[in-house]
Amino acid sequence: MPQEVPEQGEHERERIVNEIETLNGSMEEAVLAALLQHLLSMDLTLPQLRVLMILVTTEEGATGRSLSASFGVSMASMSGLLDRLVSQGVATRSTDPHDHRVRRVHATPLGAAVVRRLVVARPFRSDILMRLRMEDLRALEQGFRAVSEQISLMGERD
To answer: Which of 12, 85, 99, 153 is the most buried (most CB within 10 A)?
Structure first.
């Protein structure tokens, strides 16, 4: 039985998908380099950054006790780490509204911005997009809509 030759359209689809994957890899490498440069310029240690990430993702904040248990360190060590985060302006302490004996720690807007800048890779920043030709910008928008729709459909299938 003779093997069917794929249509010309399938070759073009494969070529485009491969090119997009290659370009995406290049963008990820460039973004990673920028993120690493930013990380190395910060005055946060890795443990401080890990705690800050927890604080940013918890709306109600955290207690020193819960953080020390989560990270397997003493309360004294966690207290010192939190003191440094507060002194750098990336975290703040407040009294728990339900139990005034408890102090909660929250990320400040600066802390959230630090984490966002480190965690969220943004190769499609507005300053870059604004320099694109309109036809390229429209094509990119159309492509993003198509990918977004496919991602939504994947969620519906699960």
So the answer is: 85
Report pLDDT digits (tens) over 67-120: 999 999 999 999 999 999 999 999 999 998 888 899 999 999 999 988 887 776
Using CB atoms within 10 A of its CB, is residue 133 exposed (0-12), middle (13-18) or buried (19+)? exposed
Half-sphere exposure of 59 (CA within 13 A, CB side): 0
Residue pair 107/52 in contact (Cβ under 8 Å)? The answer is yes
How far are the Cα atoms of 51, 56, 65, 117 from residue 112, in angstroms, in the given order? 12, 6, 22, 9
**Cβ contact 47:71 at 8 Å:** yes
Residue range 4-45, pLDDT digits in tens: 556 777 888 898 888 988 888 888 887 777 777 777 777 888
**Chain Cα centroid distance, residue 93:** 24
- Token pair belonging to 95: 């009294």
